[in-house]
Write a structure and sequence with these properties.
Low-confidence stretches: none
Number of helices: 4
Mean pLDDT: 75
Order of helices and strands: EHEHEEHEEEHE
Domain At1g61320/AtMIF1 LRR: 15-159
Oligomer: single chain
Number of strands: 8
Number of domains: 1
Shape: globular
Strand order of the largest sheet: 1-2-3-4-5-8
Protein name: At1g61320/AtMIF1 LRR domain-containing protein
Largest sheet: 6 strands, parallel
Distance between the termini: 24 Å
Organism: Dichanthelium oligosanthes
InterPro entries: At1g61320/At1g61330-like, LRR_At1g61320_AtMIF1
């Protein structure tokens, strides 16, 4: 398993420019500490560099809900091994919705989709605080987005779980 934590956008591109593929990697956790907007596509680029990843977990500290964004996703990419995709801290952000749609289209063996709407807060390296009881309005919005926009588009072979 590999956990990557990117406090800024620049570090993602540096990792991808100066590294070989993550050959043999089966599980990956990406911790997103900033509001990335269109740069969320770097999640797909990191996944592309790790073609054997079966489980992708995102921990997201999102803040704002933006209007729909025009994100340029990587071309000629299929996550041929991705079976499980989970996200902690989903708040209904537009770029995360688009990431879900992109991965649903490009992950032919995806079986499990987990969306956790609890607010997560970064504490320090490798430590996150999950706030399930706080931010009720945010969680309600995130669940509504997940149930009305994401769930109806999930293929029947994929088991979605919205918390």
């Amino acid at each position: 398993m590999l956990t990557l934590q990117f406090p800024s956008r620049l570090q993602v591109s540096r990792v991808l420019q100066h590294s070989e593929k993550f050959a043999g990697l089966k599980e990956m956790t990406l911790c997103i500490l900033t509001y990335w907007k269109r740069r969320i596509r770097f999640v797909a680029l990191v996944l592309k560099a790790a073609p054997l990843v079966e489980t992708l977990k995102l921990k997201v500290q999102g803040y704002l809900r933006q209007k729909e964004l025009n994100i340029r996703w990587p071309q000629n990419f299929t996550a041929t091994s991705l079976r499980t995709f989970s996200i902690e801290g989903f708040g209904g952000e537009s770029e995360l919705v688009q990431l879900f749609f992109f991965l649903l289209r490009r992950s032919p063996v995806l079986k499990t989709l987990i969306i956790d709407t609890a607010r997560v807060k970064y504490l320090r390296l490798g430590e996150w605080e999950i706030k399930r009881s706080e931010y009720a309005m945010r969680r309600n919005f995130a669940r509504e987005v997940a149930q009305t926009r994401l769930a109806p588009n999930v293929p029947s072979a994929v088991k979605p779980s919205i918390m």
